[in-house]
Amino acid sequence: MDFKPTALIYSSHNRGEYLHRDWIVQRALDHPHNKSVLYLPFGLESRESQDFSWGTFKWYFDRFTPFGLDARVFFWSDNLSRHDAEIFFNMVENSEVVILGGGDVNLGFERYDAMGGYFFDDYDRFKNYLHQRQNTGKLTVGFSAGAAQLGDVCEQDDYHRCYALIHNVTTTLHHEWGREADLGELARRFPGHLAFGLPNDAGIASNQGFLPSGNKWQVLQFIIDNSWDFPEDSFHIKTRQGMCIEHIYNDGRKWTFNGGDVMVRVFSPDYSYQGTWIMMPNNPTVYDYWSQSPSRFVNIDHIMAEH
């Protein structure tokens, strides 16, 4: 079974090498001919702020131009035409990697939805294109506000309307010590979802699909990036201070995910059953998420085969 991620959500202060090279740039470079990355800064109000946001990525992507990387951007404007919108959706459909940028979550939603609604009378057009990308195995990335948009629910948008490329997951971004109450509130309000606190620089990569039984599977890979090493930025990068990805159960229990950890989830079609397991590198034990105890399973294939 192919567990190559189709969605990646992350929070970062700058362009740490591990997250951006190994998980984003390399994904585009690995394609034999379509080595394109599209950046969408729709959550930034002005063209000036969109340009600045693009610049924080462009300098890094430019390093890989000699290797064939085709880094692109599409800026929001109040003066876009129907032809511009057609170009936009063509880029979203065909780019090997698409990154939803940071800024204001609500503003991003309004603009993404308006691209379909205003020009095509289809406010779900952007969301449907993202799911089409997922179905064809392409990678869609959510950075900062974009990470909230790719989950199932997000606190910044009154808990609705997200694009749900990572099913039954919600996050707090730029998470840090002292924000456990925010994470706990998400966990309690949405007991069917898993709430994670993503510090700078950390992320979650996901793939999901259906088993022959009709059950839905999901694999989450947890990413910790300690590669950004400018002392003046050390305050902002919580992973360099030892913070990992925090998770709070809906009953208040906690679990901390380290880089390389993996979570496997299986849902029945009516969601009456939800099995969840945790695996760690260099540890042969597969833990049951609910009991936090060793399970009878030995690996991912064993879990999938029995569901």
Strand proportion: 25-35%
Mean pLDDT rating: 91
How many helices? The count is 8
Order of helical and strand elements:
EHEHEHEHHEHEHEEEEEEEEH
Task: Offer a quick outline of the entry.
The protein is of the alpha/beta class. It has helices at 17-29, 47-61, 82-94, 105-120, 125-135, 145-150, 180-189, 300-305, and strands at residues 7-11, 36-40, 70-73, 97-100, 139-143, 169-173, 194-198, 202-210, 216-224, 245-248, 254-257, 262-267, 274-280, 283-288.
What keyword list fits this structure?
single chain; alpha/beta; 10-stranded mixed β-sheet; 4-stranded mixed β-sheet; 8 helices; 14 strands; globular
Structural description of this entry:
With 307 residues, the protein is an alpha/beta fold. The chain has 8 helices and 14 strands. It has helices spanning 17-29, 47-61, 82-94, 105-120, 125-135, 145-150, 180-189, 300-305; strands at residues 7-11, 36-40, 70-73, 97-100, 139-143, 169-173, 194-198, 202-210, 216-224, 245-248, 254-257, 262-267, 274-280, 283-288. Strand 8 and strand 9 (216-224) form a beta hairpin. The protein is globular and about 55 Å long. The two termini are 14 Å apart. The model has no long low-confidence stretch (mean pLDDT 91).
